[in-house]
Every structure is written in C-alpha cells, then in structure tokens.
Design brief:
- By secondary structure, this protein is of the alpha/beta class.
- It contains eight helices and nine strands.
- The chain has one domain: Vaccinia Virus protein VP39 (Rossmann fold, 3-Layer(aba) Sandwich).
- Helix 5 crosses helix 8 and helix 7 runs antiparallel to helix 8.
Length: 268
Amino acid sequence: MSSYIFDNAGQQAGQRFTSLETLYDSWTIRHLEATGIDTGWQCWEIGGGGGSIATWLGQRSGPTGHVLVTDIDPRFLLELATLDQPTVEIQRHDIGTDPLPAQTFDLIHARLVFIHVPARQEALQRMVTALKPGGWLVVEDFDSTFIDPRYPTTDAAAAALFQKVMAAQNRLMATRSGELALTWGRSLYRCLRAHGLVNIGMEGYLAVRKGQSPGARLVGANFGQIREEAVKAGFITNEEVAHMLTLLDDPDFAISSPMMFTAWGRRS
C-alpha cells in the first residue's frame, strides 16, 4: 500500500491542486524569491502536483536555467501546457525510494511531500546531498496537531464532527506514514540544522476557512478521498462524512486550517 493517502488518480485530485495553488502559492513564492532565484538556476521541484510552482520556477530560471519537476504520479504535470518547454524536465520519481538525479541544484523545493514519506529523514538527507554548495532547500509541510482546528465555529456539534473526521484522516495518515507525520511540520527547523544547513529560518501560516471557500473545498476533497478507507476502518461513518461535506458547503460554517510551516536553509 502506498504511503500517500491522496492518490493523484482520485477524482478529487484536481480540486485539491486548484485549492492548494489558490491558498498557498503566494506564500510559497515569497519564500522562494527570498533565496535569490535568478536566471540560470538549476531547480528541482519535488511533488510537482498541479504544476503551478514548477511553472513559476521555469519562468524565473529563464532560458539558461533548468527545472526538474518530479512526482510519484505526474499525470497532471504531463498535461500542463506551461511545462511543455525545453528547460523543464518532468519525471516520475519517488523521493523516498528512487535514486537521486545525476545533477546538483541551486534550489530544491517540496510542499506537502514529506508528511507522506515514512523515511522522511533519509529523504531529507538525500535532498541536502543533491544541493550545490551554496544551494537552497525550501520545505513546506502541515502540522495538523499544532492548533485546535475547531475554534472558529460556535456550533459545538459541528466542531465535534469536524474534529472526528479530521482525527480519522490523521489516523489513516499515521498508519501509512508513521505517527511523526502529524507533527513533522514543527520539526523542520531543527531537522535542517541537524542535516548541516546554514542560514536556516522557518515561518508558519494558518487561516480561517469559511464554507464554500477554496480552503473548505480543499478539506472536502481530502475527506471525500479518504471516505471509503476511513469508513471501512471503522473510524467514521458515511453519514458523518456526508454531514461534514454539507457543512463545508455552508458559508456560515468556519474551521481553521492546519499550520503550514515553511523552513529554509542553505548548504555551506
């Protein structure tokens, strides 16, 4: 069984990628710009997903740069016209198990990848190895236990239902990727230090998500995709998921996002 619970082959994948781009691309790009990315840079985008960040990297690195964009299932990347250019290379690749690319990179970025990789410390070390001296690593991951996700709503029953469905999702993720997957985001700063990087920093981002918003649609896509497995495992019922999806379509309902931690460091 794959450690990735949100298979790109699922019908919800397109909505998930659209929501993630809307919610987080500006946050991600701000941190990538801070590395000083310029024309001619060699970049590696791990877990390319819907391809928006890989497209941006291709534009910033220009005609003399190169962007390797990888995913365990690159079907969305292969269909994206903006990535059909000679400086962008698309590969199917699993950072947890596959050999490293032959080249080294000025910038490596991964967003919401390592929470799904059981051997995440080993994979992180391999990424550091793939950096050029002076190259930058930017890693972004959720920490779903950092805050109480229920606080925005005043409906206690709805809050309890959201907590139950979220707990079911977290249990499935822990089964696939290990218990530390749930708190991986908060550990990024010390992990980058442990792997010998310098100029390290980290910031966190969270927001309230109202029903019908891109954030609510992201949560709905995720819950819809795990529904069958979570019900089969006895973590939740079909009726509870259906009620939760209805709430997520109600503009008067609100939840909190998990904390998105973005950490960065440079190879000396």
